[in-house]
Amino acid sequence: ELWRKKTQGGYSEVAVTPRGAFTMEARDGSDDVMAFDVESGRELWRTKIGPTYRGHDGSHDGPLATPTVDGNDVYAVGPHGTFVALDAASGKERWRHDLVREFIANPMTYGFGSSPLVEGSLVVVQTGGEKSRGLLAFDRASGALRWNAAHGLRGGYSSPSIGTLAGTRQIIASAGDRVYAV
Length: 182
Prior knowledge:
With 182 residues, the chain is an all-beta fold. Helix content is 3%, strand content 45%. The protein contains 1 helix and 15 strands. The strands form 4 sheets. A 4-stranded antiparallel sheet has the order 1-2-3-4, with no helix packed on it.
């Protein structure tokens, strides 16, 4: 074992790349995305994305989703529906969306927990709600919404994945009310 860190709260796993180890946690009243040096465990940066999500019904406080890292990009979804793009080297915010306010997404019982999916020039998040029921695909660089696949009425905690089905590359999602592919 090279190093170990104790977190203050949350369920986020760790995404490890040559650039660092990336995760989310609740600390001092906020939910943060952070990066650690993979060799030493030294914290490289920490970016606050919103107030700490308060657990209920026996759950603990803090974020659920694991950040997605691709190249020099980190994408993270907080439990309140804050969706951010960060620079992997510095943690500097590139763009931000409030999925609830902007897209009328409904948080699930324990908040948003699905990790973003990177596919080419897109980053895709799973939501649920009247206007954004399904998948929202954003331009990785600008954060502009490119398309919305409204196939699931309720969001899900599992992250969308990519695969080839019947010879066609597709995004596969498990929503609260169905499994579908686009």
